[in-house]
Amino acid sequence: MILIVKYYFKLLKNSDLTKNTAIKNKIFTKCLFQKYYSSLGVDRFFVLDNCSTDNTIEVALQNRKTHVFRTNDSYKNHWIWMEYMLEKYSMNGWCLVVDVDELFQYPFFEKFSLRVLTTYLSKYHFTAVRSILLDIYSKQSIQHTTYEEGQNPLEICQYFDSKYSKGRYFFKNKKNWKYFNGEIYSGGVRTRVFQESDALSYQYCLNKISLFKYSPTTYLVQGMHAIDGAKLADIQGVVIHTKYLSDFISRVKKEAKREEHFSNAIEYKIYESIIDTNSKLSLYYHDSKKYVSSEKLASLGFGKSTDQFEAYLKSNQVTS
């Protein structure tokens, strides 16, 4: 399985588990990233470094199964990097694409590996898994949600918003220039807290296609919000997003100024405007839910198992 780091891009190719990611000033071991994905079966990491100035690369290369690629290009072109890595290293292979602050989960992930999951998907001719992005946060203000390197982020950020909605949206496939219809999720803490900032407003899209089998006809929308040329699985995943740590505030100001993210960093500008009005902003509220397990998340509508999937695990006596 491969992992590309920018979007922590993780790839399963044949029997090889690899991962790709692109980093700018993010410690590779942050959130126990390598340890977490290695435990799921990733055994090769491809790191795409975009002008980091910390010790990211030195830390990354401590793992002998890590490969580093460098670019000085503007982050505005990051999806070109991703598509190149997909075409170069991922063709006809299973790919898991995540950012460095995202933890991909699937039904019963605590009990079995990604290889077991992809074997099931291949057996029933599924080629992609749709997930919902779940932002987690602490009871404290963002500025006081401190993190120590190597610490499990789920020990710090244990809460999330459970309210979200589903809709449909037409995406353009830029390989064949045709539109396709896809399901989208919205809502969560971003809509509750960061929905509007004076004249700025933004529709937060929470769906992610993090795990998929890449082929010449596969088209992944920038941001991994939708996929064309794939058969979506009967199960669903969850991408735990560990974004709201104390360094979030400084990163927001930096990215709002750089304007290299989508639409001149409009999302970061909204974050900045809200934070500027309340430097002690806390995301926790009376209806926040506490993270317990993937099964508990499924009971709240985040991630989904099926009778077929569970029967497969049972009949094959899958435990790891």
Q: Main β-sheet, in a few words? A: 10 strands, mixed
Gross morphology: globular
The overall pLDDT, averaged over residues, is 84
**DSSP strand content:** 25-35%
Molecular structure report:
The protein has 320 residues and is α+β, with helices and mostly antiparallel strands. The protein has helices at residues 33-40, 56-60, 78-89, 114-123, 153-156, 188-194, 248-258, 262-277, 294-299, 307-315; strands spanning 2-5, 9-13, 16-23, 45-49, 66-70, 94-97, 102-105, 128-135, 159-160, 164-173, 178-187, 196-197, 200-201, 207-213, 219-220, 227-228, 237-241, 289-290. Strands 1, 2, 3, 4, 5, 6, 7, 8, 14 and 17 form a ten-stranded mixed β-sheet that branches. Helix 7 packs across helix 8. The radius of gyration is 19 Å and the shape is globular.
Keyphrases for this structure?
alpha+beta; 10-stranded mixed β-sheet; 18 strands; 320 residues; 10 helices; two-stranded antiparallel sheet
Question: Layout of SSEs?
Answer:
Elements: E1 2-5, E2 9-13, E3 16-23, H1 33-40, E4 45-49, H2 56-60, E5 66-70, H3 78-89, E6 94-97, E7 102-105, H4 114-123, E8 128-135, H5 153-156, E9 159-160, E10 164-173, E11 178-187, H6 188-194, E12 196-197, E13 200-201, E14 207-213, E15 219-220, E16 227-228, E17 237-241, H7 248-258, H8 262-277, E18 289-290, H9 294-299, H10 307-315
Parallel strand pairs: 1-4, 3-4, 4-5, 8-17
Antiparallel strand pairs: 1-2, 2-6, 6-14, 7-17, 8-14, 9-18, 10-11, 12-13, 15-16
Helix pairs in contact: 7-8
Brief account:
The protein is of the alpha+beta class and 320 residues long.
